[in-house]
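tool=predict chain=A
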Amino acid sequence: MNSATNSLQKKVFELLDQQNREWELAARNYKGLEKVEKHFFEFDGGVKIGVQFNPERIYSSAAKVDDKSISERKCFLCHAHLPAEQIWVEFNDNYLVLVNPFPIFPKHLTIPHRRHIDQCIMEHFPEMLNLARELDEFVVFYNGPRCGASAPDHFHFQAGNKGFMPVEQEFYQVSKTLLRNENGCKAQSTENYLRHCIILEGNDKSMLSQWFQEIFGLMEKLMQQEPEPMMNVLCLWENEEWKIFIFPRKLHRPWQFFSEDENRILLSPASVDMGGVLITPRREDFEKLSASDILDIFTQVTWEKDLFEKLIEEFSKD
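tool=predict ok
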């Protein structure tokens, strides 16, 4: 489709242009982003949380991801079921890079594995690092099977253009505790950030992969969740090193999601929400969501302080 000498990122920009010209669904929804409304809440320590009203995201936010619903629908990430208008570029031998037709970002990609395999990140984490380095104008992210993935039965990453999520800049200003410092790599934990996060940074891929494996194992031991420890992961390449944000999760959706009265808020937190932009597909939720609601929702879906402190204590020992 494109010359093999082109970089992946160049191919992706060409793909975005082509799909916006020739795929009506994608073109309409990317054009619709111009009308998306957003406002911000500010919290202590300069932490900002954006709220975006994006009605097209109803398909993802309200997706039925129970086993019965998954088994009764065709997988929309399998090559055989892609719309005729949807084309792709390849990343190594394992992935297709697709334009997401229901975007949050001005440039929004979905990156499914070629094979229909479960959403479980452990063995694929090094490929996440490779993707982030190749797509250095994007943030690559992973939603666990019960942490916002609308296709938990088919392994995939997503990516969105940099400059959209507050976490990218807040990395430099929020207070952090150093957990490890080896081979030019650092592991830190955030403090007073509304949601607990471990941040890995450095340019040693094997060290970062080893640390991620250790954190994954400790989370598995502490929470004993199935099919994997619940988490959202964001990764970007900047200043010749990776920055990886790991958000441990304990709950898929807050109680407000299931409420059948005026308390209902149709919000299903995933990586973008953890990165600082809450996606609301209904106007009434966009208008009524308050700072106290945000604090309550983060408290519900992320780890308690005591458990997170146990995680970083165990990780710091090794």
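The longest strand covers residues 231-238. The CA atoms of residues 163 and 169 lie 8 Å apart.
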